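User: Here's a protein and a ligand (FE2/S2 (inorganic) cluster). What would the complex look like?
Assistant: Let me lay out the input and then the predicted complex.
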Amino acid sequence: MPEIFINGTSVQAEKNQTVLQAALANGFFIPYFCWHPALSIAGNCRICSVQVEGRSWAEMSCNLPVAEGMRILTDSDAVREQRKATMQFITLNHPVDCGICDKAGECKLQDYHVAYNGTPSISIDPKVTSTKFHALSERILLDNERCILCTRCVRFTREISKSNALGVKKRGDESLLRAAENHPLDDDPYSDNIIDICPVGALLSRSFLYKARVWYLKPTQSVCPGCARGCAVDIWHRKPEWHLRALDPKQNTSIARVTPHGVPGPDGPWICNKGRDLAKIFERPRAEQAMRRGHPVDLDAAIDVARRLIGEAKRPVALVSSWGSNEELAAFRQALGDRFKVFVKRDHVPEPGEPVEDDFLIRADKNPNTAGARALFGADSDREPAFPEDTDLVLVWGEGCNFASLPPRARIVFVNAYLQPENGHADVFLPVSIQTERAGHYTNFDGTLGAFTPCFAKKPTVADAATLFPALVPSLVASP
Ligand code: SF4
Ligand code: SF4
Ligand code: FES
């Protein structure tokens, strides 16, 4: 472990670390644009320069290996002068349109301008203009004037997603980031990660474009339910103290964007584009009304009827949801598990055109908690249901049930969160909350637990499955 000195303080660096890595790992700040812990070193932005004592020139700390006894200055007058010159160069042709830029508030260019430059451009030449709103893909727009050509996005597509979808064409102030002709970014299921890692506001998400200033939003930690990988995500939504009182109130309870949760490191965090589109899953039309054979009834009245039907049933079968949390599944097992023959249902299957599986993150099982359900109900519960001939009641929990395959004479108790025609055909329909309205855990395919917390309040007309199942225990029927 080489000992180096940063601003006079002794630091034990790791062998093979760079000065930038050693400094960041030990609490010293050095700015960087093009360096990223998960990508190869490009060394093209020069903002990370430091001074090695005894040398008269600046060094790029992101590409400088530590050496025993090395003495580094990260914030000397010479270093600050160098960084100011670098910022003047990087912003030479930059439009500085922060007022309309989605990255404002989380942009390294803004932060470093304030920290190291803070003065207007010294150039007397007009700025070189370039393409704005260039469609890099169906999901991503590129503002070439804001691009500082750090090549993080290019390296991501080469080294992480391996789509080789991006490159830089031409030279000098005519340089342009462009999608490679034969490798369109549209085919890269991980493309939106480049929006996160772009250090400036050059890469723009079409779905988030001009939707919200980031300082009005807050992230809530959650788990992507899009497949059995269960990636940790942040769901961004409007802060309660900044709720809108005009415009559509739905904006206060909408998902603004989804990003990976966690600190960038050699393993990411990355998520696939399906994880970015959770609004498409969670913001489908909701079922919020309990029903008795299609007729609206109070939630409590519907629970009473369901409890009675369960109490009368001799051979009930339950199809439990692989989108249920561990807590909800455990509540079902504890309250009703002995009474029902249980099968774990695959609520979702791959959509047409959706990448089914790859050797990076995406898993073929499009449900977040099959492993948690199997752990509670047994490995053979996760198979095509075999209904006993005399099945007289089926409790269906969640989506993905083929109702035509259910025993025709069986009563149906349906527990679901979204509008679908079968809600109205069930003997009893019980609406329940969704993941963004409650806390819980999923167990992913390799046994890792993922936690989620609520972003929004549930409607009073819907139940939480974890409290609903204990209320369906027939022994709770009031005596006459
Ligand atoms: S678009 Fe962003 S990430 Fe890509 S080269 Fe330009 S500044 Fe870097
Ligand atoms: S890999 Fe699976 S869990 Fe991760 S973001 Fe994509 S769909 Fe969601
Ligand atoms: S971060 Fe070192 S040159 Fe860009």
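Summary: The longest helix spans residues 77-90.
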